Amino acid sequence: MLLQAGAERQRRSRSGYGASGLDLEQEYQNRGFDVQSVPLDPGALRSWEGRRPYGSVVHVVAQLSESFAPREVLLSAGEGSEPVRVEMLNNFFARWTEDQLRPLVILESPEKAFDFGRNLLLRNSLAARLLTGNTRGVMAIGPYPGEWLARTSSLLMEELRGDGLAIGDLHIAFWSRVTNPAPALFTLDPDLPVWD
Predict the structure, then answer these.
(1) For the segment 142-172, what is each residue's pLDDT rounded down to a tens digit?
(2) Which 3 state secondary structure label does DSSP give 2?
(3) Mean per-residue pLDDT for 81-85?
(4) Domain map of the chain by residue range?
(5) Within the chain, where are the H helices?
(6) Which residue from 55, 68, 83, 187 has the fewest beta carbons nearer than 10 Å?
(7) CA neighbours closer than 13 Å in the CB half-sphere of residue 109
(8) Beta bridge partners of 24
(9) DSSP letters for 79-104
(10) pTM, full prediction
(11) 2-186: which CATH topology?
């Protein structure tokens, strides 16, 4: 499953895959993955009421920001969009059926033109909060410069193709190929499988 802003919104905000001329959903499909795409928008997430999402892996690509009272990290599809709170995502992930594992979330934050270090802190803070919800693990990746996105997404998809892959193995394999910024892994059990 893929949660991200639409390509046009990415181009307008000059961030993410759309700004680099890449269609992440198409990239996944070209590599043989069955992709269910959901816009990163509170209304779209709420519209799933009564429907069951599927998938073992959810790739979330979002700009990160923070509220000031109380201090919390928010996901955004770009300027002018309503922010998505962690609780909304956790409620969305709670819709997975009880007979399947909760999703592994790949949280990717696009590069911002300023404050790289703060963006990493926000990414990791958000990943830690997602772990306490309805996921079995969160691998936080990025931010990568726009010119790296084709390479990093390709490497991620190559690693995801591995049979019998554990979450910890995915993290180590991806980290060895994309060294900076280092991906962060949040899970209670790195031996859980990537795929259900």
Answers:
(1) 998 888 889 999 999 999 998 889 999 999 9
(2) strand
(3) 86
(4) 2-186
(5) 7-13, 16-19, 24-30, 42-46, 86-93, 116-131, 149-160, 167-177
(6) 68
(7) 31
(8) none
(9) TTSPPB-HHHHHHHHTTS-TTSPPPE
(10) 0.91
(11) Rossmann fold (3.40.50)
Q: Which helix (H) or strand (E) holds 179?
A: none
Take residue 22 and report the two structure tokens written for it.
Answer: 């890449």
Tokens found for residue 178: 């994309």
In the numeric block, which tokens belong to residue 142?
């990025």
- Is it the case that residue 96 has pLDDT exceeding 90? no
pLDDT per residue over 44-82, tens digit each? Answer: 888 876 677 778 999 999 888 888 767 789 888 666 778
Q: How far apart are CA 63 and CA 79, in angstroms?
A: 9
> What helix, strand, coil percent values describe the chain, rounded to 5?
35, 20, 45
Residue 31 has pLDDT above 90, yes or no: yes
Answer yes or no: is pLDDT of 12 > 60: no
Q: Half-sphere exposure of residue 46, counting CA atoms within 13 Å on the CB side?
A: 6
